[in-house]
């Protein structure tokens, strides 16, 4: 019996999976467009451009087009350095170009004429207005995720920092994590994406009542972006918001962290509702240990970060007024 059909089928399946992974990665990544000009504003064609990921030292190279543009896409969110050179001009190095999740960024680079070999170093600044697309949204950084108080350790609570977002109108005892209303749309009209993959529950989860399939620990997230309007058609299915979360990646150096979050009734004040009806403090006791480690699999090429999922804390029960 010939094995050719079996081999062909396996190859087709692998190619399909690779193509699907590439499509999903577009949602989790960003795009950098460079505009190379001389001091008079004219386009510089054929300039040599090097793009370096500052975490992994991964290098990508390209030449500027006839109209002076270079596009790098997709790019993993992070910090990059760009070096541009062209004969007869000073070389320019632009540091700290930050690419956020699903961000399209334009960086203008101006080359100055030089009679001798010279180089110029500049630091990229964040543009006040997004001129690359018409989407509306806000990026919540890792620093904000970790340092802002989260009573239930749910990163989705921080989506309420975005203009136009508010809590679902459902009863708080029935409302699950990630149930938010954006621009007046139903909480079921939001689209949750994790590292480029669909993370929507799709059905009612009676145990956690979560809008997501996977609820990552806040400490494992690099950042997330809440898009509330005019987002790309690649996301689809959302009349409300797109919550696009990205897990931390590794670097050439190994890093780790450990934590133990504790909430105890002995250190807490009584709730407003319990005070209203003269009830004692809730017997609250939350212990949530966890940890994360990240580092290289292959130096300057493949990196990985991972974190074991901590046990979910038990939610306190609030007494009801008779």
CATH architecture of the largest domain: Beta Complex
- Helicity range: 10-25%
Low-confidence stretches: 17-25, 302-306, 310-322
Q: How many E-type strands?
A: 18
Count of domain modules: 3
Main beta sheet, described?
5 strands, mixed
Mean pLDDT: 78
Overview of this structure, please?
- It contains three helices and 18 strands.
- With 322 residues, it is mainly beta.
- The protein has three domains: 102 residues, Immunoglobulin-like; 114 residues, Ferric Hydroxamate Uptake Protein, Chain A, domain 1 (Beta Complex), CATH 2.170.130.10; 73 residues, no CATH class.
- A five-stranded mixed sheet has the order 3-2-5-6-8, with no helix packed on it. A five-stranded mixed sheet has the order 9-14-15-12-13.
- The chain is elongated, with a radius of gyration of 24 Å.
- The N and C termini lie far apart (77 Å).
């Amino acid at each position: 019996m010939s094995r050719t059909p079996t081999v062909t089928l396996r190859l087709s399946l692998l190619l399909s999976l690779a193509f699907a992974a590439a499509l999903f990665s577009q949602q989790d990544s960003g795009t950098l467009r460079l505009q190379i000009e001389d001091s008079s504003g004219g386009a510089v064609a054929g300039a040599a451009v090097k793009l370096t990921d500052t975490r992994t030292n991964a290098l990508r190279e390209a030449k500027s087009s006839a109209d002076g543009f270079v596009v790098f896409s997709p790019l993993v969110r992070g910090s990059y350095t760009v070096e541009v050179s062209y004969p007869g001009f000073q070389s320019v190095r632009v540091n700290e170009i930050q690419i956020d999740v699903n961000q399209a960024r334009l960086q203008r680079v101006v080359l100055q004429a030089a009679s001798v070999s010279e180089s110029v170093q500049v630091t990229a600044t964040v543009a006040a207005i997004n001129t690359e697309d018409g989407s509306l949204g806000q990026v919540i950084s890792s620093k904000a995720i970790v340092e802002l108080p989260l009573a239930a350790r749910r990163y989705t609570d921080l989506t309420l920092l975005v203009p136009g977002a508010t809590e679902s109108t459902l009863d708080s005892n029935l409302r699950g994590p990630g149930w938010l209303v954006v621009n007046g749309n139903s909480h079921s009209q939001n689209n949750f994406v994790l590292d480029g993959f669909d993370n929507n529950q799709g059905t009612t989860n009676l145990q956690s009542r979560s809008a997501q399939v996977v609820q990552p620990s806040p400490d494992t997230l690099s950042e997330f972006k809440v898009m509330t309007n005019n987002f790309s058609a690649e996301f689809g299915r959302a009349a409300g918001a797109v919550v696009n979360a990205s897990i931390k990646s590794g670097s050439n150096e190994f890093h780790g962290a450990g934590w133990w979050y504790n909430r105890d009734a002995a250190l807490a004040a009584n709730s407003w509702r319990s005070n209203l009806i003269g009830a004692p403090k809730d017997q609250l006791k939350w212990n949530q240990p966890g940890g994360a480690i990240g580092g290289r699999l292959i130096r300057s090429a493949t990196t990985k970060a991972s974190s074991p999922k901590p046990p979910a804390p038990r939610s306190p029960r609030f007494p009801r007024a008779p």
